[in-house]
Amino acid sequence: MLQRRLLWEDHGPNPDILRPALDPLCKQIAILSAQIQAYEKQILQVADKDFPETQALRTVPGVGALTALSFVLTLEDPARFRKSRDVGSYLGLVPEQSQSGASAPQLGISKAGDNYLRKLLVGSAQYILGPLGPETELRRWGCELSKRGGPNAKKRAVVAVARKLAVLLHRLWVDQVAYQPFRSTAAAQTAA
Questions:
Q1: pLDDT in single tens digits along all 192 residues of the chain
Q2: Which of 131, 126, 95, 128 has its CA nearest to residue 110?
Q3: Nearest 5°: phi and psi at 58?
Q4: Could you tell me the sign of the dihedral formed by the alpha carbons of 177, 179, 185, 189, in that order?
């Protein structure tokens, strides 16, 4: 009881008692934050200077310099793929298949290809589907997909958005055009 009174005043913890324990932690967090910002700046400089093709990829919300640079460096040449849809399977973002007779169970993704880039694309997809993601066709499609299905529908939707994002990034890289969040709406306006 006495110890509780030392740590807690009327309205919460006593900051003077906690300060010796928290000050070194706060200093470490500040140092790490500064280092992370310096590395992010270096990555951005490399992307801008040595790989200008990443600028078109970075127009997609949720895709930063690291993801765009990893995408370009992993695929190396956009002409490697006849169709942009092939990129999803190259990166292991397609479901495995195991058909036996009339049974075709739904399995997890194949996880072929580059593990790091796959994680970055899944992280971008989570941002797109998350509360901070801007309203786009891709987000709407992913949200509709996550509403269907059972308990794993959200996970499947994230992977599906990551696969579609990989296809989109490849298309943007090939065409070197800026991302349009509502492509079908823009196409309808140009047709009218």
A1: 445 555 555 555 567 777 888 899 999 999 999 999 999 999 999 999 999 999 999 999 999 999 999 999 999 898 989 898 989 888 888 766 666 666 655 655 656 678 899 999 999 999 999 999 899 999 999 999 888 877 788 888 898 999 999 999 999 999 888 888 887 665 555 554
A2: 95
A3: -75, -5
A4: negative
CA dihedral sign of residues 184, 189, 191, 192 = positive
What's the Cα-to-Cα distance from 105 to each of 23, 76, 98, 117, 169, rounded to whole Å?
54, 34, 7, 27, 30
- 3-state SS of the chain? CHHHHHHEECCEECHHHHHHHHHHHHHHHHHHHHHHHHHHHHHHHHHHHHCCCHHHHCCCCCCCHHHHHHHHHHHCCHHHCCCCCHHHHHCCCCECCCCECCECCCCCECCCCCHHHHHHHHHHHHHHHCCCCCCCHHHHHHHHHHHCCCCCHHHHHHHHHHHHHHHHHHHHHHHCCCCCCCHHHHHHHHHC
Q: Where do we find the tokens 């895709």?
A: 63
Residue with the two structure tokens 């190396």: 76
